[in-house]
Amino acid sequence: MVDTAVLYALQGIMGPFYARALSFLAAVLATWLINRNLAFRGRASALSRKSEFLSYLVLMLAGGLVNYGVYSALVLWQPVVRQHLVLGVAAGSLAGMSVNFLTARYLLFRK
């Protein structure tokens, strides 16, 4: 939801590709907060919050590249996605979600 909200707020100003890059960063911040406080609450990372977020961001880039690649391909090649960017966000998010979960689970919040 954060991803799509930021994308739609910025796409008129920045276009669908630059706006998507910023919406992805906003989504990373939101998911880190959710993962830190809910999903992995009992698993400490042994890092300061700043270091933990930066590590999380770096780890999420792998899934983010998959996510952005799928989104971009669909926006470029599918007119319906160009008209409804949320479809590209959903497809990209699904594609990158498993990569992101696995890196968070096994590399950052492993204790």
TrEMBL record:
Topological category with respect to the lipid bilayer: Multi-pass membrane protein
Transmembrane region(s): 17-35, 56-78, 84-108
Alphabetic keyword roster: Membrane, Transmembrane, Transmembrane helix
An example Gene Ontology CC term for this record: plasma membrane
Domain GtrA/DPMS transmembrane: 1-109
Gene Ontology biological-process annotations: polysaccharide biosynthetic process
Main location: membrane
Domain of life: Bacteria
Subcellular location: Membrane
InterPro entries: GtrA_CellWall_Glycosyl, GtrA_DPMS_TM
Family membership noted in the UniProt record: Belongs to the GtrA family.
Name of the molecule in the record: GtrA family protein
Species in which this protein is naturally found: Parapusillimonas granuli
